[in-house]
Amino acid sequence: MDVDIPWGPEAPTAARKALRAVLSGWGLADRDWLDNAELVVSELVSNALTHGDGCHGVTVEHHHGQVIISVADGSEIAPTRAAHLGGLGMRMVVQLSARWGVDRLFHGGKRVWVQLPPCPPSVRQREGPVRHRPTGRRSTTDSITS
Question: What is the pTM of this model?
């Protein structure tokens, strides 16, 4: 799925919001996992804007429980993890990903992709469906007002 975001300085923020909406819509609801996904897309988009001749597209894929985020840009220079070269953000991306890579694009430029670790089940998914007590009956935890 291509994520529609405006290009320019607001792109990382827009990418975070759009990504959360897409992932939540797919039922991926773990808050910490979503926060990490937002950090990853924000860093990839920021790198495309800063080092990659602009961000040319953001894509999110979900196949068999695996989520892959990819960001295309116009540069053929691969990102680096070397801190002395300013690669602290990519080091964070590597730590938050199951794996990542760079694909050269036929028309020039590259696509940096990140496969996220599987999203843990949300609390509701782990506990099963919410069960309601039958109406008209009180349990020991009900409050009684007079």
Answer: 0.77
